[in-house]
Amino acid sequence: MRVIRPVGLLLLGALLSALLLPSAFGEEATAPTAKREALAQTDQVQGAPQRTMVLSKVTVPPGAELALHHHLGTQIARIDSGALTYTVREGSVTVRRGESDQDPQVVRTIKAGQTGRIKAGQWIVEQPSAIHQAANRGTVPVVIYLATLLRKGAPPSTPVSAPQTP
User: Fold this and answer.
1) CA distances from 99 to 67, 82, 102, 104, 149 (A)
2) Would the pLDDT of 13 be above 50?
């Protein structure tokens, strides 16, 4: 029978820690980030000159956070799967459920200073005045489909600095 000495156990523990906890050895664990796919877009929007209409899909992995931002145009966001934790800093959004052309049901309104969960099958309309942030606090990816009408040349989202606390 082979006896494992304390030094061997110490080395084995260090090796396992390095494999399981990279940040313990100076390597930063990378935070998960959302992935945006531009599915379709056009600059030829009748009745909306100097605007771009974009259809996108965003996948937010568990643990990922979307920084404080707003959009330079109107955006409709529909959660396809998962649940998004959504915080409004300025403005408000109304969460709805159901087909938009068949009298959708209002689930709740998230006002400035409030946080709510937007679940699969629910959707919101974000106006440029809605400054917000979001996160996936769940265990499965959140998939969001977005239809956005932006000023021509505008980015999909515009970061906003968080207010300084005294």
Assistant:
1) 29, 18, 5, 6, 20
2) no
